[in-house]
From TrEMBL:
<keyword id="KW-0560">Oxidoreductase</keyword>
<protein>
    <recommendedName>
        <fullName>Gfo/Idh/MocA-like oxidoreductase N-terminal domain-containing protein</fullName>
    </recommendedName>
</protein>
<dbReference type="Pfam" id="PF01408">
    <property type="entry name" value="GFO_IDH_MocA"/>
</dbReference>
<dbReference type="GO" id="GO:0016491">
    <property type="term" value="F:oxidoreductase activity"/>
</dbReference>
<dbReference type="GO" id="GO:0000166">
    <property type="term" value="F:nucleotide binding"/>
</dbReference>
<dbReference type="InterPro" id="IPR036291">
    <property type="entry name" value="NAD(P)-bd_dom_sf"/>
</dbReference>
<dbReference type="InterPro" id="IPR000683">
    <property type="entry name" value="Gfo/Idh/MocA-like_OxRdtase_N"/>
</dbReference>
<feature type="domain" description="Gfo/Idh/MocA-like oxidoreductase N-terminal">
    <location>
        <begin position="17"/>
        <end position="89"/>
    </location>
</feature>
<dbReference type="InterPro" id="IPR050463">
    <property type="entry name" value="Gfo/Idh/MocA_oxidrdct_glycsds"/>
</dbReference>
């Protein structure tokens, strides 16, 4: 396991305290390591596309935080790169395993809600202006 720190801070705990064997200061050094099979991308939204494109090009499996990209053009570039490289790619959606979803599934499976005829949902965090103003979400 390795970690990439774009900014090294003296007060950061040693990666070894958390079972991280090696700390990288360059994404290229990390991606050039043949022992790394999968990369978890937790960069800010506007930095994900170049990172994912580089990872796909080097044949790494990729788990990326959402949102996938900040523009449709970037989303299509990522899709093409992943397909061309034939690498595993998954965009993380935490709500699939959120306790609220687990409880909802439990209630449905127990039949405590009754017959579901439709579902309407709304996520109330209105952050698109700050998170992805170009793609509105």
């Amino acid at each position: 396991m390795g970690s990439l720190f774009l900014r090294l801070v003296e007060t950061m705990p040693s990666p070894r305290q958390h079972g991280i064997e090696k700390r990288y200061t360059s994404i290229d050094d990390l991606l050039d390591n043949a022992t790394i099979d999968i990369v978890y991308v937790s960069l800010p939204n506007h930095m994900r596309t170049p990172a994912v494109l580089a990872e796909a090009k080097r044949g790494k499996a990729i788990l990326s935080e959402k949102s996938l990209a900040t523009t449709m053009e970037d989303s299509k570039a990522i899709e093409k790169a992943v397909k061309d490289a034939d690498v595993f790619f998954l965009e993380g959606l935490m709500y699939l395993t959120h306790p609220l979803m687990n409880k909802t599934q439990e209630l449905l499976l127990e039949g405590r809600i009754g017959t579901v005829r439709g579902v309407s949902g709304y996520y109330s965090a209105n952050i698109w202006k700050k998170a992805n103003p170009l793609s509105m979400g």
